[in-house]
Amino acid sequence: MDEVRATSRWVASRASHVSIDSSALAKVIDKTQGSIPKVEWDFEGIHYFDNGPLTVQYLFVLDALNFCFWPDKDLNYDHLALGLRDALWNDGSALDADRLQKYTVARPLPLEEERVRLLHEVGNVLEKRFEGKAANLVEACGKSAMTLVSLIAQNFPGFRDHSLYKGRQIFLYKRAQIFAADLWGAFKGQGYGHFHDVSSITIFADYIVPAALRQLGVLMYSAKLSDAIDTQKEILSGSEEEVELRACTIHAVELMREQMKLQFGKQVLSIDIDLWLWSWGFGPHRCPITAPSPYTTESLC
């Protein structure tokens, strides 16, 4: 993930649409007193978990499809997680590699062709290279989150989260890192979720977290970008605005982690910061330095 950190820092130093307010960041850090509220991985109770390899299969499929729920107001991440969970409850073979290669979409979805393509890709690669099991992919990483992200990017093109920004390739790896984080959270750092380098994972550059950082005053947007977001206009994938939003989010959290270590002598995980900011979401009525209520979370990314 060094490439993610380095290229995000490079974007932040050249960004024209998004900036990081260092004074606001310092205030947030001071209020934490070096302690991020602990939010449980499945605080909403929406995920499948059986403490075994089927959970790994579920999480890999879930994270393959974890993108772009906008502008469908009737579809969000919760629906995806619950839908896949219920499919497994009804049929334990629903996410087998051979079946993933045959699925089509039963209802209109944002970027439905890409979602179907990813399902087929996941099923095909798992079958050809990992005996059909995402658990075998995880076992091949040697308990290293960095190696797992690298293996995913090497074997599954749909997880190669790269963008071109001002002539330079930028690496973000949102969904590959989320998979490692989901394993760590679901299995509580044990078994399939044990990684000796879990601290290497960065925050996940989606759309809830920058919104939360904007609420806190840490991220500042240009007038043009603010207007586009406030009026719910589409921010095109791969555009300068989108790359800056995602990269500056990563860099802001890296600055937060570094400063918290210097100021309080504590190593804070990006996973914990991500869960805290994501669960806090768009709730300006809630204090950002207290544990959020799981019943008021909005899943809008």
From TrEMBL:
Family to which this protein belongs: Belongs to the QNG1 protein family.
Keyword terms: Hydrolase
An individual GO BP term: tRNA modification
Its job: Catalyzes the hydrolysis of queuosine 5'-phosphate, releasing the nucleobase queuine (q). Is required for salvage of queuine from exogenous queuosine (Q) that is imported and then converted to queuosine 5'-phosphate intracellularly.
Stored InterPro entries: Q_salvage
Pfam families for the chain: Q_salvage
Keyword Hydrolase: yes
Protein name: Queuosine 5'-phosphate N-glycosylase/hydrolase
Domain of life according to the entry: Eukaryota
Enzyme class: hydrolase
Gene Ontology terms, MF aspect: hydrolase activity
Catalysed reaction equations from the record: queuosine 5'-phosphate + H2O = queuine + D-ribose 5-phosphate
EC number assigned by the record: 3.2.2.-
